[in-house]
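# nightly structure sweep
# worker-07 picked up a monomer target from the shared queue
# config: single-sequence mode, recycle default, output format = structure tokens
# input follows
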Amino acid sequence: MRLLSFLKNGRPAVGIAQEGGILDLTGLDEGFPSELVEFITGGAVLRDKALAAVGAGHSLLNPESITFRPLIPSAGKMLCLGLNYTEHAAEGGYQRPSWPTIFLRCPRSLTAHGAPIIRPIVSEQLDYEAELALVIGSPIRHATPEQAVDAVYGYSCFNDASVRDYQRKTIQWTMGKNFEQSGGFGPYLVTADELPRGASGLSITCRLNGQVVQNANTREMIFPVAETLALLSECITLEPGDVVVMGTPSGVGHARKPPLWMRHGDVAEVEIEGIGVLRNVIQDEVAQRAASPLVAA
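# output follows
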């Protein structure tokens, strides 16, 4: 299945992308939830019900007519890997890590397929990062690699757009990775049964304004999916709806001479074989401090 989160008449909905359009599961009957996390936690019952609805003659929505949402807008945990491809670690001046480098993203840092990635007013160093994302389908703790990969519900595309000067202000990367609407996530969650085990052997590409700037294969990860999840489960329980983002290959903008930063109006695309294309236009942030309800008077 190719699942998605979207807005229909301003309300959240879950759908399945199929040949000919989008099947609105939420609109079929009250048994289907409006949030993808709830669909995932519904397990085999909801999955079988959704599969039965595919091809049953229901009307389909035109993908161009819907507004995509980030696949999991408010994950319980979003864990991201840095330095997970050897050549990318080297281009950033780092040694090959002996344990995954982990940082967190918060919900407000996400943006959807087709929505803008915001270039903040405080920096010009906005960089692209094509990445494989996965969503956990069943809880795991102290899992073996085989148990861990079995817990993956599905895979998607992610653009871990990073504000490099803020990322490097301290040894902690959190600030550079959490600017609002900086992480593109989607468009589809492809269930694990439709891809190679652990999503290994898939080409992963980033294009900026149509030009290829990153081109690699997921088999080149230092810590592949199964090993990563097993290591994470040593520390924390991974739960349904949690998201893990698997790191970017070489070719990022900050390592180029001169650096290649994303600008207003640029188009960034992340394509992963068998999953799809995530597309975002870069948009400059507009300072509206006086009018913002989030800023105290």
